[in-house]
Amino acid sequence: MKAGVKRLAAASAGEPALRIAGYASLFNLSDGGGDVVAKGAFRTALGRRGASGVRMLWQHDPSRPIGIWDRIEEDQLGLYVAGRLLTGLELGREAALLITAGALDGLSIGFRAIKAQKMAGSALRRLAEIDLWEVSLVTFPLLDAARLKPVPSLSSSATGDA
């Protein structure tokens, strides 16, 4: 199995799932759209929504939810996410196959800029506050470094394995 994933039984409804984790955004790096996210930009939205209020979508399509984010937090590097890709869904199974084969590992955020300003002497926009709606699995992330990362081993009690 490729880095960034771990099989487990979903906590809800006993549905099979693939555990995924990675960085959906990294601070102080410019993306392909000219945005640079500042440290602390997600704080207000995460305080209001929490992980359960941020959707996991396929390719930013709101009609295609494919999992659940269990953990979303800012750390020193950026916005770290961890969740369950629901492989009981046809699309979830397809995404899991692509991820485990190494064909897909991109993450991307769907948001509205609350506080932003042009950076002096450049065309870049610094995002100081973001209203985060969703984090998607994508083929081509706008921020190239936003990728799935290795998932730490789970204890047998968390996975249901002996």
List keywords for this structure.
162 residues; eight-stranded mixed sheet; 3 helices; 14% helix; globular; disordered N terminus
Structural commentary:
The protein has 162 residues and is mainly beta. It has one domain. 14% of the residues lie in helices and 45% in strands. Strands 1, 2, 3, 4, 5, 6, 7 and 8 form an 8-stranded mixed beta sheet that branches. The protein is globular, with a radius of gyration of 16 Å. It starts with a strand and ends with a helix. One of its GO terms (molecular function) is peptidase activity. Pfam families: Peptidase_S78. Residues 17-149 form the Prohead serine protease domain. This is Phage prohead protease, HK97 family.
Largest sheet: 8 strands, mixed
Helix content: 10-25%
Separation of the first and last Cα atoms? 19 Å
Shape: globular
Q: Estimate what percentage of residues fall within beta strands.
A: over 45%
Count of strand segments: 8
The helix/strand series, from N terminus to C terminus, equals EEEHEEEHEEH
Give a topology summary.
Layout: E1 5-9, E2 16-26, E3 35-37, H1 43-49, E4 55-58, E5 61-74, E6 78-86, H2 90-101, E7 106-118, E8 125-138, H3 156-159
Parallel strand pairs: 3-8, 4-8
Antiparallel strand pairs: 1-2, 2-6, 4-5, 5-6, 7-8
Keywords: Hydrolase, Protease, Viral release from host cell
Pfam families: Peptidase_S78 (PF04586)
GO molecular function, one term: peptidase activity
